[in-house]
Write a structure and sequence with these properties.
This protein is an alpha/beta fold and about 475 residues long. It is about 45% helix and about 20% strand. It has a 10-stranded mixed β-sheet with strand order 3-4-2-1-5-6-7-10-9-8, with helices on both faces. It has a 6-stranded parallel β-sheet with strand order 13-12-11-14-15-16, with helices on both faces.
Length: about 475
């Protein structure tokens, strides 16, 4: 009997304290594996002096968690280097922050080879394989070299860049060609898919056919749009839990009647946090009558702290929040609460429910599940308002949000004022449109859409 094999850079335990504080990808993949069981393989997050390929196995219900340790050099070159100093900024249109080093690329390819060799014994004859995200683009090619003939799918969680930006990456062509070792390649939005098709057509000479069929030489893949969702029912239930209610009441009490504006983002330059702080300050200046009646809570847990650009964004936000508070605060009011820590999902659900407005304003984002979680956490009788960047992948689905250009401080400031004054009737109408989409196109819809396409792919090749 076949089972799904999921492969991603990091794997998160299904048990213990870390299971309560998961990122969007971890929650989504847990949901994808929950139905039929399977194997989830990836890096443990730990290092070992010499790579051995030894697998640590953990069983939780019908899901096997398989992890492997990497060498410190692997982490420096593959993860901190090529993945997060080369591909991440480039795929988010930040070529100015992109670093190209041969050692980075070498480490990236080496770890993909090591992943392939290590996971190979776990793959059964009929198991479909689902590879995730920019860390592992060449993994399909490495698995094919080892004789794997199973159906292979790849899903990109971040944006695909325009061709002119992608071409600045040394060895961009072999990287893209490696995607043609998969059978199905998925993207979050039509925009990201179109950017991939443009490159494949103009720079590889691939033939783009109907239904997402893309042929390069003897290989034909299917490229699809499959926007990732959340477990809407689970999150709506979490928002009514005792933990969530306590967090909601605690935040309401500390706000002393003020309207709460919330932002929850990893500390990352793609999230547009400096621009968001500037927009909030513009709001305070343009609407002085509302000063003292609102407060902004920005939750920004640190990430990738060994990468210099992330240390720089943290220092910039520390300075901005201090200056804004210093210039606008009163003896009984501070306009920004800036918190550098993460919260468990149930507590976050209560924080979302307490907020009258959510600011989700990335400069570029593959999807952004915070936007969907905020909507799912709302009180149906008195929902808050989602302000969403037009450059987030979620904007293609969540059209009932207040859509804004995050680069325009005036536009975001006006949207905040609009959201705070919005009548309950309009808030409810917008929320119903949003929640309907989030419930319909949830994580299970996403799983079934992608895996259905993979099941319909041509029969696996023979070695």
């Amino acid at each position: 009997m076949s089972r799904l094999v999921v492969i991603s850079n990091r794997v998160q335990s299904l048990r213990g304290p870390t299971a309560r504080n998961q990122g969007g990808l971890a929650v989504a993949l847990h949901g994808a594996l929950r139905k039929e069981g399977g194997v989830w393989f990836g890096w443990s997050g730990e290092t070992v002096e010499t790579f051995t390929g030894a697998i640590d196995l953990e069983q939780a219900d019908d899901v096997a968690i398989a992890t492997v340790d990497l060498e410190p050099q692997d982490v420096d070159e593959y993860y901190n280097g090529y993945a997060n100093r080369s591909l991440w900024p480039l795929f988010h249109d930040r070529i100015d922050l992109t670093r190209f080093e041969r050692d980075f690329e070498g480490g990236y390819l080496r770890v993909n080879q090591r992943f392939a060799t290590t996971v190979r014994p776990l793959i059964g004859a009929g198991d479909p394989l689902w590879v995730h995200d920019y860390h592992l683009i060449p993994l399909g090619r490495e698995l094919r070299r080892l004789g794997v003939t199973n159906r292979l799918g790849f899903f990109l969680h971040i944006p695909w860049p325009p061709s002119q930006i992608l071409m600045s990456l040394p060895s961009h062509e072999p990287l893209v060609r490696s995607l043609f070792e998969y059978d199905v390649v998925g993207f979050q939005t039509r925009d990201w898919l179109d950017a991939f098709l443009h490159y494949a057509d103009r720079h590889l000479g691939a033939a783009v056919g109907k239904d997402g069929a893309v042929t390069l030489g003897e290989r034909t893949i299917r490229a699809i749009v499959a926007p990732i969702g959340i477990d809407a029912n689970e999150f709506e239930t979490a928002a009514r839990s005792e933990c969530a209610c306590f967090a909601r009441d605690r935040l309401h009490m500390s706000a002393t009647g003020r309207s709460i504006i919330v932002g929850v983002d990893r500390l990352d330059y793609s999230k547009g946090l400096p621009e968001r702080f500037a927009s909030y300050e513009r709001f305070l200046l343009r609407y002085p009558d509302l000063q003292g009646l609102v407060l902004m809570l920005q939750i920004a847990p640190p990430s990738r702290e060994k990468v210099d650009t992330y240390r720089a964004i943290r220092a910039e936000l520390d300075g901005l929040s201090g200056r804004i508070n210093g210039e606008h605060a009163d003896i009984d009011w501070v306009p920004i609460r800036y918190v550098n820590k993460g919260y468990p999902r149930e507590e976050l659900a209560g924080i979302y429910r307490a907020a009258r407005v959510a600011l989700v304003t990335p400069l570029r984002d593959g999807m952004n599940l915070v936007a969907k979680e905020y909507v799912a956490a709302q009180d149906p009788d008195d929902p808050g308002v989602l302000i969403l960047s037009i450059f987030a992948g979620a904007a293609a689905q969540l059209t009932d949000a207040l859509l804004v250009n995050p680069y325009s401080a005036d536009e975001v400031a006006d949207a905040i004022a609009h959201a705070l004054s919005m009548p309950r009737e309009e808030r409810t109408r917008r929320w119903r449109g949003l929640i309907e989409n989030i419930r319909r196109e949830d994580v299970f819809w996403w799983r079934d859409r992608f895996l259905g396409a993979l099941a319909r792919a041509p029969a696996p090749r023979h070695a």
